[in-house]
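Below is a filled-in request sheet from our internal design queue. Each sheet records the structural input a requester submitted and the sequence that came back. We keep these sheets so that new team members can see what a complete request looks like end to end.

REQUESTER: design group, bay 2
PRIORITY: normal
MODE: inverse folding
CHAIN LENGTH: 189
BACKBONE (tokenized):
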């Protein structure tokens, strides 16, 4: 899987959410809305990005996007400001449920986190958020039942799979270029 070159878009990117919903409207005005699809894939993101870069960097971006268009392939991209690392505490009491407490954790159910248990004997790895208790507490499921507690560091990478179906390049003056592109999140096996 290809990864987008490490060229940062210009400040001012736009992010849109596109929840995959189905709506049923009844004659009496009542309507029922449901999210459609697998839980983790119900709200893809769309980014409108602008890259004000050198002509060489613009050629790198354009070449990368051209090669993805030729084979209709997605690529890995991490939007600026989307990932984070935070620290807090955890506890696990004779079960597989690990309760993590971090002030204003900012995670949601089904987020995939890289967890580093910095003290105690819990096993590090990638975990899916199982439940969100409140803005300071959430749970994940460990591979084995145990009793542990200590400090923890979590990382939400923010990386995802994207396609870019349209982009344009302008050259405002010598050795400078602007590329405007729309990246749409996709979900693939």
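RETURNED SEQUENCE:
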């Amino acid at each position: 899987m290809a990864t987008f070159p490490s060229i940062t878009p210009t400040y001012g990117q736009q992010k849109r959410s596109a929840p995959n919903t189905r709506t049923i409207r009844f004659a009496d005005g009542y309507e029922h809305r449901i999210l459609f699809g697998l839980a983790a894939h119900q709200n893809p993101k769309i980014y409108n990005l602008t890259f004000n870069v050198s002509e060489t960097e613009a050629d790198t971006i354009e070449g990368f996007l051209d090669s993805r268009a030729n084979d209709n392939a997605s690529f890995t991209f991490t939007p600026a400001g989307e990932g984070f690392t935070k620290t807090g505490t955890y506890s696990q009491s004779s079960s597989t449920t690990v309760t993590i407490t971090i002030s204003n954790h900012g995670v949601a159910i089904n987020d995939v986190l890289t967890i580093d248990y910095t003290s105690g004997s819990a096993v590090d790895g990638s975990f899916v958020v199982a439940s969100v208790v409140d803005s300071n507490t959430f749970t994940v499921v460990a591979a084995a039942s145990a009793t542990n507690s200590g400090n923890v560091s979590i990382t939400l990478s923010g990386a995802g799979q994207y396609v870019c179906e349209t982009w344009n390049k302008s050259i405002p003056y010598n050795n400078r270029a602007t590329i405007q592109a729309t990246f749409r999140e996709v979900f693939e096996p």
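SHEET NOTES:
- The mean pLDDT is 88.
- The radius of gyration is 21 Å.
FILED BY: M.R.
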